[in-house]
Amino acid sequence: MSNGTLEIKAISGHAGPVPGRDASRDYGICKVIDVTTCIGCKACEVACLEWNGYPFRETVFDNTYQTMPDLAWNYYNLIRFNEHVAEDGTLSWLMRKDGCMHCADPGCLRACPADGAIVQYANGIVDFNQDHCIGCQYCVTGCPFNIPKFNSETKKVHKCTLCSDRVGAGLEPACIKACPTGCLHFGSKEDMTDLAQNRAKQLREHTSHKNAGVYDPAGVGGTHVIYVLHDIEHPELYGGLPKNPRVPLLVRLWKGPLKWLGNLAITAGILAAAGHYIRFGPKRLDEHQDEDRDEAKKGEPK
Amino acid sequence: MTNGWIDIKNTDMMLIMGGNPAENHPCGFKWPVEAKRQRNAKMIVVDPRFTRTAAVADMFLQIRAGADIAFLGGVVRYAIENQRIAKEYLVNYTNAAFIVKDGFKLPEDGLYSGFNSGTQSYDKSTWNYEESGSGPAPKPVAGAPPPPPSLPPNVAYDLTLENPRCVYQLLKKQYSRYTPEMVERITGIPKDQFIKAADLFTSIRTGGDMQKAGTIIYAVGWTQHTFGSQIIRTAAILQLVLGNVGRAGGGVNALRGHSNIQGATDVAGIFDNLPGYLKVPNPADKDFSGWMARITPKSAKPKEWDSFNYWGNTPRFAVSFLKTMYGDAATKENDWAYSYLPKVDREYSWTHIWDDMYKGKVKGVIAFGMNAVAIGPNSRKTIDALKKSDWLAVCDIYPDETSEFWKSPGITADEMKNIKTEVYRLPGAGFAEKDGTFVNSARWLQWKWAAVPPPGDAKLDQEILARIFLKVRDLYKKEGGAFPDPILNLSWNYTTPQNPSLADVAKELNGRALADVEDKPTQQTMKTGQQLPGFSWLRDDGSTACGNWIWCGSWTEAGALMQRRGTDDPSGLGIYPNWGWSWPMNRRVLYNRASADLNGKPWDPSRRQVWWNEAQKKWVGNDVPDFKVDSAPQDHMGPFIMNPEGVGRLFVPLGGMAEGPFPEHYEPFESPIANPLHPQQSTNPVVKKYQSDLDKYGTPEQGFTVVCTTYRLTEHYHYWTKNNPMNVQLVPEMFVEIPVELAGDLGINGGDKVKVSSARGATYIAKAMVTKRIKPMTIDGKKVYQIGIPIHQGYRGIQEDEGKNARTIVNLLSPTVTDPNAYTPEFKGFLVKLEKA
Amino acid sequence: MNPTRRSFLKAGTGAVVASVFGFDLKTAYAESRELKIARTTETRSTCPYCSVSCGIIIHTIGDKAKNVTAQVVHVEGDPDHPINRGTLCPKGSSLMQDILNDRRLLKPQVRRPGSDHWEDIGWDQAYNEIARHIKTTRDATFVATDAQGRTVNRCESIAWNGGCTDTNEFNFLAVKTMRSLGVVFLENQARV
After folding, report:
1. Mean of per-residue pLDDT scores for chain A
2. Rounded CA gap, B597 and B633, in Å?
3. Segment holding A150, helix H or strand E
4. How far does the CA of residue C176 sit from the closest CA of chain A (Å)?
5. Is the pLDDT of residue A293 over 80?
6. Residues of chain B contacting C181 with CB distance shorter than 8 Å
7. pLDDT in tens, B276-319
8. Which domain holds residue C52?
9. Residue C14 lies in a domain
């Protein structure tokens, strides 16, 4: 194993301390997606598929340039296309690479009951390990961005690994490398935050995008994938990017005060029923957001 | 490109028009984006559709396909009216000050002086400069044919630019008709939007300040018209008026389409050239010297100025080429085997191949990696022409439409029996299996290495061609036949003749000394057999051989410069002098002398390309000076060394352009309106129709009211990637992009099957993509719809073979009609009818 | 410092687990895949699609030793290349599937006049037949002089169609051979 830069920070369903944690300095990494220079070419989609070796999948025409309606278990990132007409009649064609945000406070990991199925590395990568996945899909419910996807044949859940194998070997993720315009950029979280903020500032000062800003939502503790948007007030225009993403209340309860209940549930073998309930339960509980914000901030990584 | 991909990062202003680089050249497009990021450069995109390039632009204007000259002419007018011009550049580096002959007439009525409506051609004798200081022209000798018109050696000029017959005043007059109102009528771009764009683009020359640079970026959206070359001319005029040519971040930049069509043009895989843009011999050229006399220009300039006139060296290039072709069989005594070259006095361009074949004259075709049926216009005609051929040899890596024309959709079993063509399909090698060089659009020659052997029984293309040729040669050796001399004497001295090493050929293209050659000024000598270091070494006495003079210097005694991988860029301008090799002589920006003022000082001290070093008495710089290095600024040598005038041409004299010295807006051959400038002369006067029964042209009166344009998608590549599962996955089905309003009129929903038809009779069927990205337009007061069709559907491919699409080709719709200068077909802006299928 | 809920939980049971599993667990959890290009052979090539001419690296298994036929496992952009700097578009990124493609033509074929199918043909026979076709057509139609008696030495009955990914060197071989045959219908993708 050549993953010299992969120190573990958190492990799903794991009782006890995280082995190796804090044994060395954090190398927080980050991917910037500057949608203002995204040309929707889908090089990132292909680079991802090629690197991961996923085979041909059937797609159909759907009156759009978008490859398919949603991500899939073997399709980790997808450009979402949206023809948007502003109030003054100006047309814009918004393109956003959708995929795992690698949250600092990952709802998927919080929700996951299987020991080691989801690990969070100190560098910020949230990675799924299918060998330990029990297929309960709690992670799907836990994700405020609707990212993890279930493979019904293998009963395993998959999502973007931020190419942990490449990053572990000192390479950048495949999508980052491929991106022709450099709308994707990779580096330390600190550097990428600077880069994104500077770009947003440039857009505000030198272009017509006076509302440009950086999307790095606090509700999930910040993310290791951040966006530069032309209009930070309206992230939902970009193919439904949530304005204030939060780990769903039920997941927070389940992994918090009600954890014992969850454990009981597993022991009692009522996993399927609970999974179904949580899976299809309400995902956004806006009315609870205010009271939960303070707590979420405490959960932010240093 | 005059400049290069990376150089675009140096720009302050971009006009992207007739090209869609974000979709078609994504990795090159990083440099326009870099200019936005690093310099706050502005990007203006003008296109019939809101493309993925438009998605990241600062300003987008939707133009009617084929109205580009009107737009650009309007910008030229705006620049002149508002004095946003590069005055010193214009006076000294262009022919603005040159006086044009009395009798020359501008095309207010759509026609320049000298038109003969019977022959549909021009007598171009008035399209010339006034001779300076001399008396009347010599009287013609009675009985002798008049000599062909030529440029005067001493051109009359007026540096005040006030003479009403000086080029500048004529230019001003020519485009005075291109008012914002007229631009709106022709292009469909609302007047105020046009003015905003013209103001923004020309803002780099506000107050005549020369520091900033603007670039124009285009591709086949400009070339594929019946006036394509003239669109590019208009762009060149605009760039000369603004003083943008030769400068970092400036230029007129053709993106070109494919990996090696720049190289194919350079080495003359086309009928009208020989390698290095030498003009082919004509039957009227009695001998080698006659040919040279016709194609070697003499300098024509103001007496006090100097002109390098580099084409004056043409005989050196031509003799060296013939020595490469025929070796010892090319001698001074036999006129360098001049008789071996076929003589050309008519057009043999792409569309003529199929016209002549359809008439039964062309009997055999050899196609290497070229899918004629799908790629050319009027596919029906190409297929029907092939049915009349005796034989066809296709070398490719996938089954394609051309090799299977005999079983194309619609051909019955009975009909198949009557197709007598013998078709050979030869499995060639893919790119990863071959070495050799491509030339990119920045003129870089780059060597690639083979990674794997060809699969199965497939073979390297060069082996296939060599073996066929050597068999032909053997047959002529054994049996004799028609004029066997050039075949028997063709130089073929490769280490392995039946499978030539491409390194051998690359060295042959560079050229070598056949005897000791001395360079007098430097007293250097190249010994017999040595690779030549550059084209200044070429001789017209048979002592040098060179396959393509513009590539001379690419593989020298120092080795294969096109294999270099140096990543240093000391100037920071993106020159990368040690990466690969760029023709000519590793210069990265053409005409870079024009990046400095009259005294040889860079216009912009922060982007220094070349400059005059007074101490060394020569031109030096970060780039290789594209100039005579020891010509001091006070000699006033023009920076445009390939023109006999030495300066850039706002006005193209004599035979330079088929339809006139300045571009004029003409309507596409099939147009929804009559030309608002001159309705009686609506289309290009020198364009010729084809006459076969399959060449029909449509009008709005026949119901063909929708303007159609065709293009590539990022996710696909012509008719090639329909064999690649990954690309098929990204865009599985082809579509027709239809404005929401038009779809509403016709009751079409996104995903419905639609049928597009043209006067050619055939139909194209695909799914509707109903979009806001193409809006209805008002053209000369008339509501006009445009639709767009990506070209990637055929009848062989992953989806085609599974019956998942209609197996129709979009070029069934396009007309056989071409640009009279470049002979490129009009794939953009023809008329169709759209229906729900 | 206020401990968060999570850090509290972890601290609570930490000592036990660490003592049982120690740091060995780290490897068990950090199970990302082996880097698939860790020991491949890299060949520098040029993307065959558009005119940007991006540098690419073709990764093959086998170190080019004599007893190995290289097998492509991955294609990626060449980070040294000054223009693309490692980037690739969706077509360039999928080049592996162009190289390894089960639709590739693998043997020479011929469709005989009037036939409705392809037949296999040996290379040598194909070369011989094509050469014979060329000679027959050329000899039957060669134009040595035009109507005005001027030498033209041209063959107007054979056309050459060159492709967009033909290398410069191959194109020059085409120019040499075709011009020597007198071919004037010498055309290339460059035109269309």
Report:
1. 86
2. 9
3. strand A149-151
4. 38
5. no
6. 472, 486-487
7. 999 999 999 999 999 999 999 999 999 999 999 999 999 999 99
8. 41-99
9. no
* B343 contacts in chain C (CB < 8 Å): 150-154
| CB-CB under 8 Å, A182 with B730 | no
Mean pLDDT of B53-71: 98
Residues of B in contact with C89 (CB under 8 A): 26-27, 714
| CA B413 – CA B398 distance, rounded (Å) | 24
Could B29 and A39 be called an inter-chain contact, meaning their C-beta atoms sit closer than 8 Å? yes
Q: Is C154 near chain B, with CB under 8 Å? A: yes
Put simply, whether C125 touches B (Cβ < 8 Å) is no
Angle at B758 between CA B755 and CA B764, to 5 degrees: 35
Q: What CATH number does residue A72 fall under?
A: 3.30.70.20
Q: Which of C99, C124, C142 is a domain's end point? A: C99
Confidence class for position B522, pLDDT limits 50, 70, 90: confident
Is the pLDDT score of B745 beyond 90? yes
Minimal CA–CA distance to C110: which of C97, C92, C93, C127? Answer: C127
Number of domains within chain A:
1
What is the topology classification, in CATH, of domain B350-487? Rossmann fold (3.40.50)
Residues across chain A? 302
Chain C contact present for A241, CB below 8 A:
no
Query: Would you call C90 and A116 a contact, using CB atoms and an 8 Å cutoff?
Result: no
Q: Which residues of B touch A45 (CB under 8 A)?
A: 730
Q: Which residues of A touch B34 (CB under 8 A)?
A: 182
- The enclosing H or E element of A33 equals strand A29-34
Give the pLDDT of residue C128.
Answer: 98
d(CA B585, CA B264): 19
3-state secondary structure B750-788: CCCEEEEECCCCCEEEEEEEEECCCCCEEECCEEECEEE
- Contact criterion met (CB < 8 Å) for C82 and B574: yes
- CB-CB under 8 Å, C83 with B451: no
Q: Measure the CA–CA gap between B230 and A42, rounded to whole angstroms.
A: 35
Give the one of A3, A116, A161 whose C-beta lies nearest to C28's C-beta.
A116
Residue of A nearest to C25 (CA): A19
Alpha helices in chain C (DSSP H): 5-21, 24-29, 90-93, 96-99, 123-141, 168-181
Q: Return the exposure string of C74-102: e unless at least 16 CB atoms fall within 10 Å of the residue's CB, then b.
A: bbbbbeebbbbbbbbbbbbbbbbbbbbbe
Q: What is the pLDDT of residues A137-165, one digit of tens each?
A: 999 999 999 999 999 999 999 999 999 99
Q: Is C54 on the interface with B (CB under 8 A)?
A: yes
Residue of B nearest to A40 (CA): B52
Neighbours of chain C (3+ CB pairs under 8 A): A, B
Whether residue B54 and residue A50 make contact (CB cut-off 8 A), yes or no, is: no
Neighbours of A259 (CB within 10 A): 14
Question: Within an 8 Å CB–CB cutoff, is residue A161 touching chain C?
Answer: yes
> What is the total count of domains within chain C?
2
Q: Rounded to an integer, what distance in angstroms lies between the CA atom of residue B829 and that of residue B787?
A: 9
Range of the domain at A209: 1-302
Decide if pLDDT at A67 tops 60.
yes
- For A177, name the nearest residue in chain B, comparing CA atoms only: B27
Over residues B528-534, the mean pLDDT reads 98
Q: Report if pTM > 0.90.
A: yes
The verdict on ipTM greater than 0.90 is yes
